[in-house]
Specification:
Helix content: 25-40%
Strand order of the largest sheet: 1-2-3-4
Largest sheet: 4 strands, antiparallel
Strand content: 15-25%
Oligomer: single chain
Length: about 170
């Protein structure tokens, strides 16, 4: 049994475990919000909650909602970031939803469930259809998106040659 919850200072130990596991893996931290330095944890949580209201955004950034995927023991298994609108960059390469599962919990179905739960949240926000993207080399994410009804659109090729797969759901 898993659920999405809004960031809360009450889960600081669980979040730090999640964060440190990602850092130790030396992988790219996805979604981007988990790159935020948690040393001032209350301020980090507040910045996530403010972003949902459009407070304190960088220029050309859009409001976004962050959720943590937790199990019944409130262990953080993953994170998802929902962008309320699309900038040009997000339309090409980021999409409405970014998500990631902590390295030790992958290949257990959590990404598919997390994306399904995130799609429920996009409905509440009135986002339809929903654009979800992944690198072409990220086969597990590609499968997750397809398992949630993703319909392939035109790929986007970044300046460095990286190919972004783009899918619409809804």
């Amino acid at each position: 049994m898993v659920q999405l919850i809004k960031p809360t200072v009450d889960l600081q130990p669980a979040y730090l475990s999640f964060y440190e596991e990602w850092k130790a893996s030396e992988e790219i931290m996805i979604p981007w919000v988990i790159e935020k330095n948690p040393s001032d944890f209350p301020a980090m949580v507040q910045s996530l909650l403010d972003a949902e209201k459009g407070i304190g955004l960088k220029e050309n950034w859009v409001p976004d909602s962050t959720y943590w995927l937790v199990d019944e023991e409130y262990r953080i298994l993953g994170a998802v970031n929902i962008r309320h609108t699309l900038s040009e960059y997000l339309f090409n390469a980021g999409g409405h939803i970014g998500y990631g599962v902590r390295p030790s919990e992958r290949q257990k179905g959590y990404a598919t469930k997390m994306l399904a739960l995130a799609l429920e949240e996009t409905k509440k926000l009135g986002i339809n259809p929903v654009l979800v993207c992944c690198d072409a080399v990220n086969t597990p994410s590609d499968k997750t998106i397809r398992n949630n009804g993703g319909v392939e659109d035109t790929d986007f090729v970044e300046d460095n040659g990286n190919v972004i797969k783009r899918y619409w759901i809804g």
